[in-house]
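@channel sequence for tomorrow's demo:
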Amino acid sequence: MNNLTTIVKGMEVRIETVSPLRCITRFVLCFSWALFLVTLPGRAQTPASEQKTITLEDLQQMALQNNPTFRQSAANIQAAEGRKKQSGLYPNPTVGYQGEQIRGGSFHGGEQGFFVQQDIVLGGKLGLNRKIFDQELKQAETEAEEQKMRVVTNVRMSYIQALAAQQMLELRHNLSKLADDAVETSHQLANVGQADAPDVLESEVEAQQAQLAVIMSEQNQQRVWKALAAVVGNPRLPLMRLEGQLEDTPPVNADELVEKMVDESPAVRIAELGIKRTEAALARAKRETIPDLQLRGGLQHNGELLSNGRPVGLQGFADVGLRIPLFNRNQGNIAAANADAERGKREVERVKLVLRERAASVVQNYTFSQTAVDRYKNQMIPRARKAYEMYTKKYQEMAAAYPQVLIAQRTLMQLEVSYINALENFATSSLSLQSYLLTDGLEAPSQPGGIDQPVREVNIPFQAGAGPQ
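structure tokens (generated this afternoon):
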């Protein structure tokens, strides 16, 4: 039997003299395998021309305009400004009527008139009030900055997840198309006696699984897109193609980011402002022992007749008083303010420790994902692709069975899917560390001046389920 040597795309292939149908089926199979290698993720993809595209910058601008938490933050600042203004206002004067011995008789209507009463606040207590609420205003402003960071980060996080879902769907569509081609090829091979019935059944099962994977990827894309639309404040945002690549995420120094987080996180800054607030409240409590000056004065008409038969007429009066702090020297409130100040100092320590605790799982996820991305990209996928090409060549030379080719193809598919998942985890964990773990853009900003003021738990991010996947 004569052997013919041909060169197909730079690869030497040895083909035995076979029937024309067998040559055709092998050509179809080889073409499908070549198409599979071309359409793997990481290679150039042509976007659907009929689908609109949107960028990350467009989504961020949309969120800055529509996200309702920004108005909540602005309202919190206005409320804090109002409380600061109110706390420094002087007490209102009191105006009233005063009458004595008004039944008549020898007094001819008695003494009747009006008075004005005013408390003079001493000890700089109003200024200390303003200092307390000035710290609350700074907290509200810091929380507004934090909220902007939350929203921007949440948009970027949702963008990464939607981009991963988009790339995964493209991969699933390509794999489903290849699985359908493999079914057709299996039937052709079976017709010429080159494939057994189990091979055909296995290829059909592979095609069904690929179709289910497409459906699951489509539903997952819809889910993450709805979440993205909610974060940008436009729940009716139609599905569009996202521009960008997951591979564009640069590496970071995770340990340095954790230290930066502990030093500069808005949660720490808010806790530090809480210390200043409690210190101002303590100073105000100590000044409470300085009494306010109570002034009261007025005019009245005295109807009592003098010896000349005329009434006394107009006469003035004035009162000046001080409340003596004899029994109540504000001891209880001073002790409570001291305790709050101590608690505020410990709160800063607690917040820093909590940030380290919650960053640990994110750092682990980042480190694992970085290693996984590197190995998938530079080791496992190239080796799996090489093995697939080798099995393909051997099958063309009739030195390998068709199931071996399917197994190699399935392995390469699974690695490509895992590669996209690793890229997503790598990008999201990197972003989380760079954004001080603040990732929930729809979390309502907390209100300064709450009952449990030193504890700002809402400002401490919670990272759930951040382990390697």
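heads up for whoever presents: DSSP finds nine helices and eight strands in the chain.
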